[in-house]
Write a structure and sequence with these properties.
5 helices, globular
Amino acid sequence: MKKNIVLGFVLLAFILGCAGAKPATRCVKTTKKSLPKQNFNQPKISIDKAELETIVQVFSEDIKKHPHQPGNYYNRAFAYFLMKEYQMAWDDVHMAEKLGMQVSPEFIRKLTKASGKTQ
């Protein structure tokens, strides 16, 4: 069980990296040339619903302990997105933004398209 949760976190972290999550508090000097091209649609990783529900539960528990950390809301929003729980994903995106996170425009486009509505 614990191994599955760790695997789920590793997969989620990899997916989030592909989604381009960028916390507003992180300052990194880069040049345009040094930024890797992000392809939101690749790679295709399969996470089953039970694993996603576990990931949502873990982030929900952490949000209760640390309600002012925007990354937890973003991570949970991405898990909700993968579960096709779009309204819950939007709610967490808005909370992450309210707490200062710059949510990936590509993720916003994908969520907008999947949910059929705008922010």
